[in-house]
Amino acid sequence: MLILLAIGLIVSGLGGGSGALRLGMGALLLLTVCIKFAQARAETRRIEAALLTAVTDAAAQLKVQSDRAHYERYLRSSGAF
């Protein structure tokens, strides 16, 4: 869509199209770019949230494993095992 709008804007500018047509196509092009930017930003936020969740979950699992290993080592060193 962006390419079509840009090509239309260039063709209307080269062909001596009316100022209103160029202005309208330029406005559509700008609006489309803004919408695409907003969509990309929303997708970035979604990915960041998913990454944060994954890292938090992995850290919690590693903490449990580490605590268990350290406790078992403590029990072995104290002769309780």
Structural features, described:
Helix content is 90%, strand content 0%. It contains two helices and no strands. Helix 1 (2-14) runs antiparallel to helix 2. The chain is rod-shaped, with a radius of gyration of 29 Å. The N and C termini lie far apart (70 Å). The relative contact order is 0.07. The mean pLDDT is 85.
Please summarize the sheet with the most strands. none
The best one-word shape is: rod-shaped
| Secondary-structure element series | HH
* Structural class by SSE content: mainly alpha
- In percent, how helical is the residue content? over 70%
H/I helix tally: 2
Quote the beta fraction: under 5%
Indicate the radius of gyration in whole angstroms.
29 Å
In total, the number of strands is 0
Low-confidence stretches: none
SSE layout and pairing:
Layout: H1 2-14, H2 19-78
Helix pairs in contact: 1-2
Short recap of the structure:
This protein is mostly helical and 81 residues long.
For this entry, give a set of tags:
mainly alpha, 2 helices, 81 residues
